[in-house]
């Protein structure tokens, strides 16, 4: 439902020269081949004082979804529903495209990281680092819901590319005093995302009933091609200072402060270059939205060992968040100027944890914590959505959604048995979520926005196990159950009591069977066969859409000797065709014109790794 994944990269190692490299190649059923290269070098610069670590990777992932251009693109039949807007897409199953671009959803990813570890004294460590990543895709991993083949059909030849470039500079410092450690983390990040989407069919369906359109091309009585380009550069500066106790006593503590400044400039424009004489403009929709936000927080945590086996920890985080937004939307569907809007949020998030350790192999705990997710601004909906908005009891759709808050109550147990050959962990939790941020679909105009949709109660159970069996075999797995539903009706968002929370499957689970065995003194064999299951969930595009559950199976086997390892693997062993999502359009969503995000078909690969 939410959370943060913390990635901690390997730090440079002082006094040791080391290198490693991994090369891989793989083939996807019905698609192109993929290649990858990863390399690392660790260089000691000053003995006992300074080291440099460089890491880089280049990944070229082949695609499997085609793009077909049909010049004489068939029109939907308005007699089925009474309008072009709601009519189902014409049947394309027997259509032969005039142009076919094979396996267009390629991905190229270049990543580089450099880090220096400087230890001028035994107490002081300074680690500056720089991270760079550039991702380019040839097309999204999605195909047309109708006719449902691994193809995206278009009336015009428009590439749908995506780019993502990120740069992050970080300086970490730690000084060890006699009784506590002082840690400082300073970072500055710049990121720019750009994407292009074909909106020709959406433009036709949104205007055909009003403009008397008889085709897609201008020569056929249409509006011609349309494409939407979206760009969002962001910058972020963060600073955190933390003091952590290190003395061996019944008391332990952490205190710190945090500052974050974030700026974003969202721009989107939908262009119809040939439709000016008909629509009076070539701009179907445009948005220019500037957002500046800052957050200041202080936090503290105090732990006390009540008895040798019982420990209590209490903490709190006091925050103050300020957001300032301005911008405008234009074009045929634009809503005009967005008045500068400021929002200020402040509060305290407390936490409490009680842990009981009857032995070194068993832990019981109870925790209570409060969390907050920040709100944000969003473009205004166009005037063609006024009827949809009025039906929800609103005078206008919100141009900002508020923070949401959650209280989490959890009981858990972590246990190890038989000389730590068997691990069993379990947890049961309950969450009370207020003002949940959810997508709201406006069915008559095809736009969506985000609003705070009442309260949700979440009840869940997690269980995991890991067993090391005789003769090098192992068995591990986990299962999770979540019951997440709205507590009451909310006319503002159209949610009803009992509606499931969006994008939250009821059941998840995985299981893996492993084998790890040394042969003689030189060779080692490693093997793994695993399966993961994700239950069904509800998402929102034009309307509410139920995703089916799915199970994916993967396997890997490798043999190594000394410094090298060769591995073969297969992902999606049973070649399941899974619908992962129903992505939103960049401009407007129209009925019966959705695309489905697909899982990757069966992929078989081989990797060679060497370390020194």
UniProtKB/TrEMBL annotation:
Residues 118-573 form the TonB-dependent receptor-like beta-barrel domain. The keyword Transmembrane applies. It is a multi-pass membrane protein. InterPro entries: Beta-barrel_TonB, Beta-barrel_TonB_sf, TonB-dep_rcpt-like. It comes from Asticcacaulis benevestitus DSM 16100 = ATCC BAA-896. It is found in: Cell outer membrane. The keyword Ion transport applies. SUPFAM superfamilies: Porins. One of its GO terms (biological process) is iron ion transport. The lineage of its organism: Bacteria, Pseudomonadati, Pseudomonadota, Alphaproteobacteria, Caulobacterales. GO terms for cellular component: cell outer membrane. This is TonB-dependent receptor-like beta-barrel domain-containing protein. Keywords: Cell outer membrane, Ion transport, Iron, Iron transport, Membrane, TonB box, Transmembrane, Transmembrane beta strand, Transport.
């Amino acid at each position: 439902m939410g959370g943060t994944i913390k990635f901690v990269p390997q730090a440079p190692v002082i006094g040791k020269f080391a290198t490693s490299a991994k090369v891989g190649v793989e083939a996807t059923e019905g698609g192109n081949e993929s290649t990858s290269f990863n390399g690392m070098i660790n260089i000691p610069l000053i003995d006992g004082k300074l080291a440099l670590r460089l890491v880089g990777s280049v990944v070229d992932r082949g695609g499997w979804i085609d793009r077909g251009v049909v010049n004489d693109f068939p029109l939907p039949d308005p007699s089925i529903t009474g309008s072009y807007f709601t009519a189902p897409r014409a049947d394309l199953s027997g259509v032969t495209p005039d142009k076919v671009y094979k396996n267009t959803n390629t991905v190229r990813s270049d990543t580089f990281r450099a880090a220096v570890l400087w230890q001028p004294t035994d107490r002081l460590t300074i680690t500056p680092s720089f991270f760079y990543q550039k991702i380019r895709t040839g097309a999204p991993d999605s195909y047309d819901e109708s006719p449902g083949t691994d193809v995206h059909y278009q009336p015009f030849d428009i590439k749908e590319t995506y780019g993502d470039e990120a740069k992050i500079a970080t300086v970490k410092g730690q000084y060890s005093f006699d009784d506590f450690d002082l840690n400082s983390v300073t970072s500055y990040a710049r990121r720019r995302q750009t994407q292009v989407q074909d909106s020709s069919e959406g433009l036709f369906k949104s205007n055909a009933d009003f403009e008397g359109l008889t085709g897609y091309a201008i020569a056929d009585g249409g509006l011609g091609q349309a494409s939407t380009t979206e760009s969002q550069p962001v910058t972020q500066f963060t600073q955190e200072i933390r003091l952590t106790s290190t003395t061996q006593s019944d008391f332990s503590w952490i205190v710190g402060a945090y500052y974050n400044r974030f700026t974003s400039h969202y721009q989107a424009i939908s262009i119809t270059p040939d439709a000016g004489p008909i629509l009076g403009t070539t701009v179907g929709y445009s948005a220019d939205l500037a957002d500046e936000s800052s957050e200041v927080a202080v936090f503290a945590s105090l732990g006390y060992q009540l008895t040798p086996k019982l420990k209590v920890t209490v903490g709190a985080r006091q925050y103050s968040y300020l957001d300032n937004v301005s911008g405008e939307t234009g074009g045929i569907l634009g809503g005009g100027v967005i008045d500068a809007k400021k929002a200020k949020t402040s509060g305290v998030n407390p936490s409490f944890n009680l842990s009981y350790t009857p032995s070194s192999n068993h832990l019981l705990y109870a925790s209570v914590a409060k969390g907050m997710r920040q709100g944000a601004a969003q473009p205004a909906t166009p005037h063609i959505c006024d009827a949809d908005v009025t039906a929800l009891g609103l005078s206008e759709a919100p141009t900002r959604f508020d923070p949401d808050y959650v209280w989490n109550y959890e009981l858990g147990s972590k246990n190890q048995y038989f000389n730590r050959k068997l691990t069993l962990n379990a947890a049961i939790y309950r969450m009370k979520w207020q003002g949940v941020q959810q997508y709201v679909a406006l069915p008559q105009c095809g736009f969506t926005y985000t609003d705070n949709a009442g309260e949700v109660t979440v009840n869940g159970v997690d269980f995991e196990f890991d067993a090391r069996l005789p003769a090098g075999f192992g068995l591990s797995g986990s299962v999770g159950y979540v019951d997440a539903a709205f507590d009451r009706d909310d006319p503002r968002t159209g949610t009803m009591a009992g509606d499931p929370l969006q994008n939250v499957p009821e059941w998840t689970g995985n299981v893996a069977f492993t084998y790890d065995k040394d042969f003689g003194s030189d060779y080692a064999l490693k093997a793994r066969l695993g399966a993961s299951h994700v239950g069904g969930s509800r998402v929102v595009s034009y309307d509410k859409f139920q995703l089916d559950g799915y199970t994916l199976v993967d396997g890997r086997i490798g043999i190594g000797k000394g410094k090298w390892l060769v591995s073969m693997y297969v992902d999606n062993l049973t070649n399941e065709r899974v619908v992962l999502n129903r992505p939103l359009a960049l401009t407007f969503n129209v009925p019966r014109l959705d695309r489905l995000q697909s899982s990757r078909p069966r992929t078989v690969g081989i990797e060679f790794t060497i370390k020194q």
